[in-house]
Amino acid sequence: MSFRTRIILAISVSVLMTAGLVLAPMLWGIKGLIDRGTLRELDQFELRLQAALEYRIASALTTAALVAEIPDVQQAVAAQDRDRLAALFVPGFARMRAERGIVQMQFHEPPATSLFRVHQPDQFGDDLSGFRKTVVEANARKAPLAGLERGRGGLGIRGISPVAHDGQHVGTVEIGHRSECGLLSGACARQRYAA
Q1: Which of 15, 55, 155, 159 could cross-link 64 (Cys pair, CB 3.0–4.6 Å)?
Q2: Is 75 within 8 Å of 88 (Cβ atoms)?
Q3: Distance between CA 163 and CA 139 in Å, rounded?
Q4: CB-based contact 139:162 (threshold 8 Å)
């Protein structure tokens, strides 16, 4: 090998080693920046998702509590008057669904029998106690409850409030929001990289 070739080879190896020594930490640093940025974005998405969930839970519970305080509702639940409940809520339910995202509204007799489903007026009388523990607990405690629970229609955000008539507990009213796509799309709308 000629002297000239050895010099070119030595310079080439030196340049490659220098480039490797300079580029490796740079690439490692860039990867770290990307990882930290991704984690920060995921943390922000989690916070937005949690806030959206808490808002929907509070909305469901507040609406259920408001409905439970209507004297006509209290009388109808006490009398198990499905026709009166239908007259009060079925006409406006489509609007509630469209404008507020309420997909379910149901009245229960203690401990957990479906008295009237506003979203399915012809389906009632079924025992929900085997899988709707929040309904059982709200009726047993005579206290409001809210959260995520699986029901016949799938996983939902539910707010349940006790209904009393003349000082006596007569059942519960439940408001349900769908938890899947609507909640996630609302949280994702502000974050184009999250989904």
Answers
A1: 159
A2: no
A3: 9
A4: yes
Each residue of 71-122: pLDDT tens digit?
Answer: 999 999 999 999 999 999 999 999 999 998 899 999 999 999 999 999 999 9
Q: Strand ranges (DSSP E) for 41-181?
A: 102-109, 113-117, 145-151, 154-165, 168-178
Q: Is CATH 3.30.450.20 the right assignment for the domain spanning 48-184?
A: yes
Q: Rounded to an integer, what distance in angstroms lies between the CA atom of residue 178 and that of residue 186? A: 12
Tell me if 114 sits within 8 A of 128, measured CB to CB. Answer: yes
What pLDDT is attached to residue 195?
A: 31
- Positive or negative, the CA dihedral 122, 124, 130, 132 is positive
Q: State pTM to two decimals.
A: 0.73
**Residue 101 DSSP SS3:** coil
Write the pLDDT tens digit of every residue in 12-70.
Answer: 888 888 877 888 888 888 888 888 888 899 989 989 988 988 999 999 999 999 999 99
Strand partners, 171: 163
